[in-house]
Amino acid sequence: MEIRLGKNIRAFRKQRSLTQEQLAEVLGVSTGAVYKWEADLSIPELGMILEMADFFDTSVDVLLGYEMRDNRLETSISRLWEMNSNKDRAGLAEAEKALKKYPHNLQVVSAAAFMYRNIGMEDHDRGLLMRALELMETSLLLFDQNTDPMGDKIIVYQNMATVYEELGEIDKAIGILRTHNPFGIFNHQLGLILSVKCRDHKAALPCLSHSLLIQIEMLFNTTMGFAHAFYLRGDFMSAKDVLQWGMDCLVGLRRQKGSSYVDKISSIFHVCLAGVQLRTDSPDIARATLAKAIALAEKFDADPNYGPDSYRFVTETEWTFTAVDSFGKKAAESLEKLVELIGDEELHSLWEQSLVRCS
């Protein structure tokens, strides 16, 4: 809690155009005493504070600079997360105060754990990191309180692994990630540790390969979701940009030789892009984009490849992987259904014309 008494005495004195000597005379003290108060070198006795508050026509609270804080549970939690976001080191003391008041509240314990983890990692402070682990272990015992759909024990385990890695306890970090890794969602972290910290490429590559395959699926869904949401909002330029971004990301993942599932994904992106270009550009540009979509689909259908070897960088994996498209097995079939789903008459007409030209 910050006391602003010295600054406030000086501010009130200047409001009344008084010198330190004049205020000292009013209060019956030495000029040196006023100087020390204003410089925060000493604090006046309680009776003198009351006398000054009366002289300045203000309350003791205002003179001290005291502000009543809202320490209710929800406010305390919000304050901890805000201090965490701002990387405010004072948040550590604030966290301990909240823990003393609400020691068995999941949200308080979790917020404090993240505070200690984040500052501990930035400062490379082993003590703070050990405190973070202690709080994370406590939070696992409190998860019957969880009402946050985004909250899950699995996230706590991932953060514990991160802390153990920072502490140099690599075996513990790997053990946690391997034990608590449904569907391989933390293989990116596990693969990085195995590669960088353990220098074990044989163990790292399967994890990283599986992680990349997951990221490709996420890239497709995220790009399509953004594009459609922007389109519905009437923000056609953003829809166009996000589709172009998605295609640019995919290009680097296509194997140079042979067939690649990247071609099928790219053909879908091209159809969506053509639909947007009808709003941002000209029909001729959209027609050219549809022609590219058809060419990519034909290329894939001539030699379809749904396996993991369809992508660059993917090596051996410990998981069976086969790409699935609910629109249809053939790329051409998927594009046909996509055009129907979009339901734009101008795009449908352009699609029919493009099929004739490409046949």
Describe it:
The protein is an all-alpha fold and 359 residues long. The chain folds into three domains: 5-64, lambda repressor-like DNA-binding domains (434 Repressor (Amino-terminal Domain), Orthogonal Bundle), CATH 1.10.260; 73-180, Tetratricopeptide repeat domain (Serine Threonine Protein Phosphatase 5, Tetratricopeptide repeat, Alpha Horseshoe), CATH 1.25.40; 207-358. It contains 18 helices and no strands. Helix 10 (153-166) packs antiparallel against helix 11 (170-179) and helix 15 (261-280) runs antiparallel to helix 16. The mean pLDDT is 89.
Layout of helices and strands:
Elements: H1 5-15, H2 20-27, H3 31-38, H4 46-55, H5 60-64, H6 73-85, H7 91-101, H8 106-123, H9 126-141, H10 153-166, H11 170-179, H12 187-197, H13 201-233, H14 236-251, H15 261-280, H16 283-302, H17 331-342, H18 345-358
Helix pairs in contact: 2-3, 6-7, 6-8, 7-8, 8-9, 9-10, 10-11, 11-12, 12-13, 13-14, 13-15, 14-15, 15-16, 15-17, 16-18
